[in-house]
Amino acid sequence: MTNAHGDFIWYELLTTDADKAQAFYSNVLGWTANDSGQPGMDYRILMADGEGVGGLMQLTQDMQAHGARPVWLGYVGVKDVDETVAAIIDSGGTVQMPPMDVPNVGRIAMVTDPEGIPFYVMKGASEGTSTAFSPTKPGHCAWNELTTNDQQRAFQFYGRHFGWQKGDGMPMGDAGEYQFLVQNGATIGAFAPQMPQGGAPGWTYVFRVPDIDAAVEKTGSGGGQLLHGPHEVPGGEWVIFGLDPLGAKFALVGTRKG
């Protein structure tokens, strides 16, 4: 791929009921889904206005027996998967799935940061540019937020491996700062301090919708659960955090039409 080293290039939902998950997100975000054609697995390509924005994978019984649960995972593009994985191990991360080639897709590995938070690294086989992350396009991921117990360590880790830098911060009282995350001069998300009773540390991917109130209604009517929001964020937009019907955490951002 032509994306820079350190770009988010893909998002993937692992779930226990692919049909139910597909119906939910199609209603909330307007996604359609195409069969990836990968042999021996149910993997679907999620599309927004003809652009691939992510994948939907049915967890097998064996995966679930080994502890796999519904979750959204991000893919970070890298120049060399094997070198990146070795460096991640050297700096306190772990390997969940060693580097492997996926025919016509690329080379991937699943790793964790030193807090045990999982994500993928990938070198894509395509010569195109991934637009899965786009701050402005409806249906695309618009924000990548990491909740962490140690922001400084997180910036050291992700900065070392992907070149991410610390941007401006927003005070959060005694909790510290909501620290913006910069990649190649553009703000792509933030590192947030872990809050009491805020759940486990981890990545949350925020997808853009054209109408946040309509998305809230569709989340509820589709069997999802609203955890927080809508909360107003800078720029006159609103964000919600929720669980899909299978229990995967997700977030949405958009304007209010009313």
Give a brief rundown of this model.
The protein has five helices and 16 strands.
Detailed description of the structure:
The protein has 258 residues and is of the alpha+beta class. The protein contains 5 helices and 16 strands. It has helices at residues 18-29, 61-65, 81-90, 151-162, 212-221, and strands spanning 8-15, 32-35, 43-48, 51-58, 71-77, 94-102, 106-112, 118-124, 141-148, 165-171, 177-183, 186-193, 202-208, 225-233, 237-243, 249-254. Strands 2-3-4-1-5-8-7-6 form an 8-stranded mixed beta sheet. An 8-stranded mixed beta sheet has the order 10-11-12-9-13-16-15-14, covered by helices on one side. Helix 1 (18-29) runs antiparallel to helix 5. The longest helix has 12 residues, at 18-29.
Structural class: alpha+beta
Helix and strand run = EHEEEHEHEEEEHEEEEHEEE
Mean pLDDT: 94
Helical element count?
5
Q: Helical amount among residues, as a percent range?
A: 10-25%
Task: Specify the biggest β-sheet.
Answer: 8 strands, mixed
Determine Rg (CA atoms, Å). Answer: 17 Å
Keywords:
single chain, alpha+beta, 8-stranded mixed β-sheet, 5 helices, 19% helix, 45% strand, globular
Break the fold down into its secondary structure elements and pairings.
Layout: E1 8-15, H1 18-29, E2 32-35, E3 43-48, E4 51-58, H2 61-65, E5 71-77, H3 81-90, E6 94-102, E7 106-112, E8 118-124, E9 141-148, H4 151-162, E10 165-171, E11 177-183, E12 186-193, E13 202-208, H5 212-221, E14 225-233, E15 237-243, E16 249-254
Parallel strand pairs: 1-4, 5-8, 9-12, 13-16
Antiparallel strand pairs: 1-5, 2-3, 3-4, 6-7, 7-8, 9-13, 10-11, 11-12, 14-15, 15-16
Helix pairs in contact: 1-5
